[in-house]
Amino acid sequence: MAAHFGNYVDYSGAKPPASATHVRDPRLHILAATIPEIFANKHILDIGCNAGSVSIQLALDFHAAAVTGVDIDPKLIVQAEKLLALRASRATPPTSCDPPVVDYFPMSAVLTHGYRIEPHRKPVHTSSAASAAWPRVTFFSADWVLPSDQDATDSYHVILALSVIKWIHLEHRDAGLTTFFAKCSSSLKPGGYLVIELQTWDSYQKAIRPNHAPHFQETLKELRLRPETSFDTLLANHGLHLCASSDALPRRINVYQKA
Ligand SMILES: C[S@@+](CC[C@H](N)C(=O)[O-])C[C@H]1O[C@@H](n2cnc3c(N)ncnc32)[C@H](O)[C@@H]1O
User: From ligand 1's centre to the CA of 143, what distance in Å?
Assistant: First the structure.
């Protein structure tokens, strides 16, 4: 699939690459410092999950109860499954007495003996209730703006839309963006959080590359909604109100809470 959805392989932006499994994503640290209860024991949807790094960290390093990652590019979902298999193979699951230990088995153990848990595996099941189906991370490929049988109302405590909205906006235009925000709102539980890593209007121009997405040139002229000035009002219309914001990293991170 051409990289005109922002579907860069092993997207890393300003952070370490997904393969650097020992380095945690700074955006997640900032969110956990801003809203301490945001991830632990929560059900989380990661829209535009790319190669799965953030989704997997949420489950293994930030103790989410269950994480679903969705990406429009099926090749990235295959990569995400492999990364999950790698990280799950290096961890010991929780027991009724002990928490999980991530990065317990060295990388060399996986290289020598192979994955303990294969890509596309079913979750780990053991006799211990605490470790049943751990880690609960699932991936699927879809254009999340479009209706699908994976849609679920009031399902998630947290939805992440990190560096993805520009691509959705350019592909689906203003009407599609409005649909996207409405779907985010209906998919969240009451009191749940939508996290947006903001891509500025200036950056939309950079998405237009002749070889990849020449049609974005025309789309750009039609768009009336702007990240900096329209999103807060649009989200408020769907019951999502800005409750926290961080400018600690180059891209602003906004958190909206469902009333
Ligand atoms: C720039 S990357 C950001 C990756 C990740 N969220 C992060 O910040 O590390 C944007 C991702 O969104 C995905 N994407 C774009 N449009 C999408 C859509 N409509 N539905 C699902 N995923 C989408 C792309 O394939 C790509 O992997």
Answer: 9
What CA–CA distance (Å, rounded) separates 77 from 52? 7
Q: Report if residue 113 sits inside a domain.
A: no
Pocket test for ligand 1, best of 24, 29, 71 (most atoms within 8 A of CB): 71
Quick check: is 251 in a domain?
yes
Amino acid in the structure at residue 131: S
Return the H-helix or E-strand segment holding 255: strand 253-258
46-59 per-position pLDDT tens digit: 999 999 999 999 99
Which amino acid does the sequence have at 132?
A: A
Residue 78 has pLDDT above 50, yes or no: yes
Domain that holds residue 63: 26-85+137-258
For residue 91, being part of any structural domain is answered with: no
Q: What pTM, to 2 d.p., does this model score?
A: 0.92
> Does any domain span residue 187?
yes
